[in-house]
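Reopening: structure tokens for the N-carbamoyl-L-aspartate complex, inputs below.
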Amino acid sequence: MEFRDRDVVSIRDFSRDELESIFSVAKKMEEEGYDRGLLRGKRISLLFYEPSTRTRLSFEAAANSLGADTLWFAGVEGTSVMKGETLKDTIETVANYSDAIVIRHPYDGAARWAAEVTTRRTLRGEKKVPVINGGDGRNEHPTQTMLDLYSILVTQGKIDGITVALVGDLKYGRTVHSFAYALGMYRCRIRLVAPEALQMPPHVLSYLESRGVEYSLHRSIEEVIGEVDVLYMTRIQKERFPDENEYNRVRGIYRVSKRTLQGAKPNMRLMHPLPRVDEISPDADEDFRSYYFKQAGNGVPVRAALLAMVLEGSR
Ligand code: NCD
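Re-run output (same inputs, fresh job):
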């Protein structure tokens, strides 16, 4: 199991054992505190071509907690992308300033592609600069899945054997693609709740079938609320719809409120990668099962563990 200089592009690049070693480092960091000397002198670039609050700030908090410096842009306004610079040219340049690059980009596959061009020229020749995918289009968001799984471990004590409902925009939502792939590595039951037009893409369903995962398709939260251990809500991804009319047909389709939660098990946890729009009403925030803000908080130890392992090797 070697993490040093590894790209983190798809959650499928990691085995279950590797994911668990990230979680145990994250837990240790949470319990024992962050070692500010660990990444001193390292530079991590955060290139966010799309809006972000949690992913960028928690990567920055994680990097700074371990003593690393961060270079970043948030939105292409103010960068040479506005002058027509290609992704390849930007990445090749930034690689020469960086020990690792975190990238979020609107195009599917942008992170994989960036990983292929990132080498840094040094006095001793070329060095690979690891690329971490902070979300590429509607494809994947592997570090979100790492913190989602960690959140399940913290709240349920295990991942094997639980029932998870993924609700909302399963077609365009990248978090649920990575999450479903990861759940397929565990013995989970999966409930996919979405309008027909936004169901999980066939390539994810065939992966689940190939892993023998028990899953079922549903239209309403009420069908599953009583049996699930995790209810994972997602935002309808307005910006990915080719047609606004199509978006208008499905907007606001799911809404979890305090009342919805009355039908849930006491150990159930309501999760959401955030931001929410209207799919969880604010009156649900006070329910003890609502976990989304703590879930976002778990982004710091998990991303710190990942950065430490990619930059300093497995420990
Ligand atoms: C998600 C994303 O960017 O895919 N946000 C996040 O990173 N927590 C979810 C979303 O935007 O709906």
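The CA atoms of residues 205 and 215 lie 9 Å apart. The pocket of N-carbamoyl-L-aspartate is lined by residues 54-55, 135, 141, 144, 174-175, 235, 273-274 (CB under 6 Å). Marking as resolved unless the reporter disagrees.
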